[in-house]
């Protein structure tokens, strides 16, 4: 679960970097600072995924990226896409961890015996 979430958040850092570059053309310094803060918090949330607060922060940042769409319009679309990927990372990751735990609990099942 953590690997998938890290991948999603890492890609979002790149997307926010490009969104800030797009915002630098037509918007004020405040819009740039907000975009930079979102990107910084994305990086911080990657490091905090060991704790529950990292997952909560990652989820809140999905909303922040969608809200950044008021500055860079394409952030609406990208925010929705990455929110879907974030949800998929959580759902698929939980299933993968449950399967791994089941296989570790019953090693015979893993060997096909």
Low-confidence spans: none
Give the overall pLDDT as a whole number: 90
Would you count the extended β strands for me? 0
Please state the CA-atom Rg, rounded to the nearest Å.
17 Å
The ordered string of helix (H) and strand (E) elements is: HHHHH
Structural class: mainly alpha
What is the number of helical segments per DSSP (H or I, 4+ residues)? 5
Q: Give the CA-CA distance, first to last residue.
A: 28 Å
Major sheet? none
Helix content: over 70%
Q: Into how many domains do the coordinates divide?
A: 1
Percent of residues in beta strands: under 5%
* Dominant shape: elongated
What features would you describe in this structure?
There is one protein chain. Helices cover 86% and strands 0% of the residues. By secondary structure, it is mainly α. The chain has one domain. Helix 3 packs antiparallel against helix 4 (74-105). The two termini are 28 Å apart. 24% of the residues are buried. The mean pLDDT is 90.
Please give a handful of descriptors for the protein shown.
elongated; 113 residues; 0% strand
SSE topology:
Blueprint (H helix, E strand, L loop, with lengths): L1 H25 L2 H19 L4 H16 L6 H32 L1 H5 L2
Helix pairs in contact: 1-2, 1-4, 2-3, 3-4
Task: Offer a quick outline of the entry.
This protein is mostly helical. It has one domain. It has helices spanning 2-26, 29-47, 52-67, 74-105, 107-111.
